[in-house]
Amino acid sequence: LCVRPTSETLFCEHYAKIVRSWRDLPKLYNQWCSVIRWEKTTRPFLRSREFWWQEGHTVHATAEEAMQETLRMLNIYAKFFEEWLAIPVVKGEKTPKERFAGAENTYTIEAMMHDCKALQSGTSHYFGDGFARAFGMQYTDKNNTLQYMYQTSWGVSTRIIGAIIMTHGDNEGLVLPPRIAPTQLVVIPVAAHKEGVKEKAAELYEQVKAAGIRAKIDLSDNTPGWKFAEYEMKGIPLRLEVGPRDIAEGQCVLVRRDTREKTVVKFEDLEKTIPALLDDIQKSLYEKALANREAHTYTATSLDEMKSILAEHTGFIKSMWCGDQACEEKIKEETGMPSRCIPFEQEHIADTCPVCGKKADKMVVWGIAY
Ligand SMILES: [Zn+2]
Predict the structure, then answer these.
(1) What confidence category does residue 205 fall into, taking pLDDT thresholds of 50, 70 and 90?
(2) Is the per-residue pLDDT at 2 higher than 80?
(3) How much distance in Å is there from the Cα of 359 to the middle of ligand 1?
(4) Confidence class of residue 260 from pLDDT cuts 50, 70 and 90?
(5) CATH number, domain at 236?
């Protein structure tokens, strides 16, 4: 076991040693490691004492370049969440109070789980030259003058697995977005003891696999009902059922995990129908999650209004904020909601801060978080 300070400080020592001139910049490192945090209250996947994460660290010659990198990575995380995990996110900047220690700006993607609580899902930090000055991270520029470097770091963790479970799952178990599902389709023979059924199922399995679908077949002696429940629990996006009557008609049945909708498909159409259905599942999981977020996002213009919304609902509350930390703390104290972020996509909800009544031009999203 190795106890270490936050990795920025380790990278600073490293940069100070290896960067001499502008020719050495920029530097980019990516590392995957496990970390331990002494959490009092743990929650599987979302908040655990030991977890894995991915962290990136970069150092640049100029502030502009470092800021570009910070936002580029935030956008990559957002794209990964939305396009691969089918989880919509709110992109924005953290308030100074919620920033990572030492960062000049912390940017975040915030997701809403199906129980309407927020999950901070990834962050990207711009450090300016603060650490560089503390650690003596200097380089000589093109004019042979000593300059400080500009630094970023960004990360996501195994918390993402929790986000997938908590965004898409239902009472039957996991629901996995097809793009990341290790198995996208399971073939299950029905009335498998009848002649030729297992053979046909195996043949279809090979056909589907050859078409590039990540597939699995279950030829065990468990009943079809048991198998249906088993693979629903595991979140496999599609199941292919085939029985003696289907075989006689040259067709099989595809059942979606998300809606349980059935589609009868001719054997020769499987290569076309399966990818189309997987795409559709991917899209509808995203749309369902987005609809849930929109249905549970409220706006408030006063602290009392915030409290009365929270008395009946869980969700995001959008309000204006004057920028004063005392007002932010008051909202957290009285409602239990920390600020999630100052979204890039701003709306004008009111002219004044809901706490102090002074002029406010920033819109903040608030929410109870995991
Ligand atoms: Zn205020």
Answers:
(1) very high
(2) no
(3) 8
(4) very high
(5) 3.40.50.800
What separation in Å is there between the alpha carbon of 357 and the centre of ligand 1?
Answer: 6
Total structural domains in the chain? 3
63 and 126, same domain (yes or no):
yes
User: Could you tell me if 321 and 327 are in contact, meaning their C-beta atoms sit under 8 angstroms apart?
Assistant: yes
Last residue of a domain, one of 168, 200, 221: 168
Amino acid at residue number 207 = Q
Domain final residue pick, 168, 194, 215: 168
Residue 198's pLDDT band (cuts 50, 70, 90): very high
- Kindly state whether residue 2 falls inside one of the protein's structural domains: no
Please check whether residues 333 and 361 belong to one and the same domain: yes
Task: Quote the ligand 1 centre to 258 CA distance (angstroms).
Answer: 44
Q: How far is the CA of 352 from the centre of ligand 1 (A)?
A: 8
Give the residue numbers spanning the domain of 193: 185-282
Tell how far the Cα of 358 is from the centroid of ligand 1, in angstroms: 6
- The candidate with the shortest Cα–Cα distance to 223, out of 236, 209, 241, is 241
Strand order of the sheet with strand 251-256? 215-217, 185-189, 238-242, 251-256, 262-266
Centroid of ligand 1 to alpha carbon of 17 (angstroms): 45
The closest of 174, 178, 183 to 283, measured between CA atoms, is 178
Do 74 and 46 share a structural domain?
A: yes
Provide, rounded to the nearest whole percent, the portion of the chain with pLDDT above 70: 100
